[in-house]
Amino acid sequence: MEYIKFLIEKARCYSLSTIVRLELESLVMGLLSVVPTIFGVALRATGSKLFFKQIDGFAWIQPRVTIIHAERIVSGTHLGINSGTYINGVGGIQFGNHVLIGNNVTISSGEHPINGAQPPIFSRLAIPKKIVINDDVWIGAGAVIMPGITLAKGTVIGANAVVTKDTEEYSIYVGVPARKIRNRQDESRH
Questions:
Q1: Rounded distance, CA 47 to CA 110, Å?
Q2: Fewer beta carbons within 10 Å, N or C terminal of the chain?
Q3: 150: how many CB neighbours lie within 10 A of its CB?
Q4: Is it the case that residue 9 has pLDDT exceeding 80?
Q5: Cα dihedral across residues 19, 131, 112, 172: positive or negative
Q6: Strands 106-108 and 73-75
Q7: Structural domains of the chain, ranges and CATH numbers in brackets
């Protein structure tokens, strides 16, 4: 009974139409996320056209990708999202053109307030913080992009990095927290 009470209290923060849309988005994208082969990629691209706020091109979305609050996500052309990635658009996410996201990446545009003992953290609403991922960005496997971050044009984020600060154009970042190791234009490496 306490769980039902909790859900009702949470639901009061949303309109009925928002709840229905979020549930429909979750159902459709969840079912599409398990469809294999190129057929599944095509279905997920169609789903992204239906649920994203705007998408200018084709979204190549691999199986087992979770996207919530898609109505607050805008994308340019050529968005590639690999398996196991979690994207929460509660605070808004803007993807540029030619963005590649590795497997098991987390991009969440909302953070939970932690100050004070009451109410319990579990019952607090997320604070929306928009994420901007500019053109020609590659996010390596297992990386975490924290709320409110801007990834500059040409940024490369190394595997398992946790990005807590905005990046510089054409730079490579690695580690926890992510730190710049070099500029992509410094020398010609593979």
A1: 23
A2: C
A3: 16
A4: no
A5: positive
A6: unpaired
A7: 2-183 (2.160.10.10)
Q: Is the pTM of this model over 0.85?
A: yes
The per-residue pLDDT for range 79-135, each reduced to its tens digit, is 999 999 999 999 999 999 999 999 999 999 999 999 999 888 887 888 999 999 999
Secondary structure E strands in the chain: 54-55, 59-61, 66-68, 73-75, 79-81, 86-88, 93-95, 99-101, 106-108, 110-111, 127-128, 131-133, 138-139, 144-145, 150-151, 156-157, 162-163, 171-174, 179-183
Tokens of 151: 């990834």
Round the CA-based radius of gyration of the chain to a whole number and report it: 18
Dihedral sign computed on CA atoms, order 43, 66, 128, 133: negative
| Sequence-distant contacts of 118-122: CB under 8 A, at least 24 apart | none
If you write DSSP's letter for every residue of 50-99 in order, what string do you get?
HHSSEE-S-EEE-TT-EEESGGGEEE-S-EEE-TT-EEE-TT-EEE-SSE
50 alpha-carbon distance from chain centroid: 17
d(CA 103, CA 42): 19
